[in-house]
Amino acid sequence: MKKSFLILALASMAIISCKKNETATTSSSTATTEAVGSGQEAVVDSDSAPDIVKLAVSNKDLSTLVTAVQKAGLTTSLSNAGPFTVFAPTNEAFDKLPKGTVDDLLKPENNNKLNDILGHHTYVGVIKTDQMNDGQNLGMVDGKTITIKMVDGKPTINGNVNIIASVPAANGIVHVVDGVILPQ
Questions:
Q1: Least enclosed by CB within 10 Å: which of 3, 36, 64, 148?
Q2: What is the span of the domain harbouring residue 75?
Q3: Do residues 19 and 106 both lie within one domain?
Q4: pTM
Q5: DSSP 3-state assignment of 84?
Q6: How many domains does the chain have?
C-alpha cells in the first residue's frame, strides 16, 4: 500500500511538473518570438535603464529625430548594445533648417542622405561632456569628423551647436543639442 501511494504521488508530481514546464515553455516562446520578430527595440523591460531610442521616444521635443530614425531604418541599430553617443537635435533645431528640408529628407529616395546626416550625429563609444576637450575631433558613424570647441567653458560641436542636456542610456549617452550637425 505504501509503495502504491509513493508511486501515485511521484506520478502526480511528474504530470504537474510537465504541465507547468509546458506552460512556461509556451509563454517564453511567445515572448521570444515577439521580441525577435520586432527587433531589439520591441523588448519590453521596465526595470533597466532605457536605451537611446526609448529615451528619444519618451521626449516629445525629439519627435522629429525619432521620425527620421524610423524612416532611415535605424531604430534597431540604435537600440542594440552599442555603446553610442548620440547628439540628438531638438524639434526646434530641425525647424532652423531651410523650409522643406526635413520633409525632403524623409522621402524614400533620400534615405542615403538621411542616413548620412543621422550617422553624422552618432559616435561609437561613450563620451561625456567632462571628457570633451577643445579641438578634439570625433570620428562619426558617417566616416566624417566633428570638432569639439569649448565656448565659455562649455563644449560645443563645431563651435555653433550647443549641448542642452546629457542623459545616460543603457547603451550609451544622448546629448540633446540645439542644432542639426550637417556633414561638410
A1: 3
A2: 47-177
A3: no
A4: 0.73
A5: strand
A6: 2
